[in-house]
Amino acid sequence: MKITVIGAGNVGATAALKIAEKQFANEVVLIDVVEGIPQGKALDMYESGAVSLFDTRVIGSNDYKDSADSDIILITAGLARKPGMTREDLLMKNAAIIKEVTSQVMKYSTNPIIVMVSNPVDIMTYVAHRVSGLPKERVIGMGGVLDTARYKNFIAETLNISMQDISALVLGGHGDAMVPVVNYTNVAGIPLTELLPLDIIDGLVERTRNGGIEIVNYLKSGSAYYAPAASTVEMIEAIARDRKRILPCTTLLDGQYGINNVFCGVPVKLGKNGIEQVLEINLSAPERSALQRSADIVEKNCKMLESLFA
Ligand code: NAD
């Protein structure tokens, strides 16, 4: 198993180290445009193996040749959000970067699985899918796992319970239009609605919706990366170890939930073939229209990128 991480910044480097430590890949290659950064960070990580006890080879490079024959390619390259900047502000700049990065990686790997993290993630997943020509099952966006992690964290904190006992689902686009589905949230099987009043749950949903910006406002420069990297590695591990995990991921819908030809976050089964199944769950009428609204935003933004493919 060879995994290439494009972008040796906060998310990419944190994810690369986690992958190395978990030892489900033989080799992790870290690639960035900035000379020296991927090499230095990769060597530093590799040296930590003597203490953290892993043998995963970690290599840093500025040359896409070193990504040759990767099984999984994680894309985190791009610009991070700054305070006052929406994910959509990043759209054009990051789309051009993702187009370039995707065409480079596809020169050296014939049938990789691409996991997209760069924002706006649903739209960048579309760009990578379009540029790579890979089947939709092999181009997957990370957003829902992070949003769900934040939602679970806020629930656990409020109830003063372990995060391990919470099962929850956040659907839709990664952004302000995300759709936390309260009816599918439970604590050790007990519906959340039996444990917390609706107004408190609404507050947790609202905090989840603004989870990214809450961190951006603290950091001032840069955005969250520990939880994003952990969420991404959870997806990559499910693929690498063929775990058949059910996780909310961004995938190209073709009719499910009444949505056609738009990338959107929904529960999927993740295994060695990438997305092995899209699960269609019953949603209330407001949840269904919220999901549709979220898909409409993604579709509108993707249409704005047409000139990129001319
Ligand atoms: P960062 O600035 O720390 O790292 C980005 C890296 O990309 C930098 O090292 C930069 O040199 C590199 N880069 C820029 N252009 C490149 C190119 N053409 N080729 C190769 N590398 C290039 O940012 P970060 O905090 O690691 O975030 C990375 C991306 O992930 C951002 O777009 C951010 O918004 C996004 N993000 C998404 C989620 C999510 O839930 N999907 C969560 C967190 C961050």
Could you give a quick summary of the protein structure above?
The protein is of the alpha/beta class. The chain contains nine helices and 14 strands.
Secondary structure: elements and pairs:
Blueprint: E1 2-6, H1 10-22, E2 27-31, H2 37-52, E3 57-61, E4 72-75, H3 91-108, E5 113-116, H4 121-132, E6 139-141, H5 144-159, E7 166-167, E8 170-171, E9 179-180, E10 186-187, E11 190-191, H6 198-209, H7 211-219, H8 226-240, E12 245-254, E13 260-271, E14 274-278, H9 285-303
Parallel strand pairs: 1-2, 1-4, 2-3, 4-5, 5-6
Antiparallel strand pairs: 7-10, 8-9, 10-11, 12-13, 13-14
The chain binds nicotinamide-adenine-dinucleotide (NAD).
The site of nicotinamide-adenine-dinucleotide has 33 residues, from α1 and α3.
Describe this structure in words.
It is a single chain. By secondary structure, this protein is an alpha/beta fold. It contains nine helices and 14 strands. The longest helix is centred in the last third of the chain and has 19 residues, at 285-303. Strand 1, helix 1 and strand 2 form a beta-alpha-beta unit. It folds into two domains: 2-143, 3-Layer(aba) Sandwich (Rossmann fold), CATH 3.40.50; 144-309, L-2-Hydroxyisocaproate Dehydrogenase, Chain A, domain 2. The strands form four sheets. It has a six-stranded parallel β-sheet, sandwiched between helices. A three-stranded antiparallel β-sheet has the order 7-10-11, with helices on one face. Strands 12-13-14 form a three-stranded antiparallel β-sheet. The mean pLDDT is 95. Bound molecules: nicotinamide-adenine-dinucleotide (NAD). Nicotinamide-adenine-dinucleotide (NAD) binds at residues 6-12, 32-34, 76-81, 94, 97, 100-101, 117-119, 121, 142-143, 146, 174, 222-225, 228.
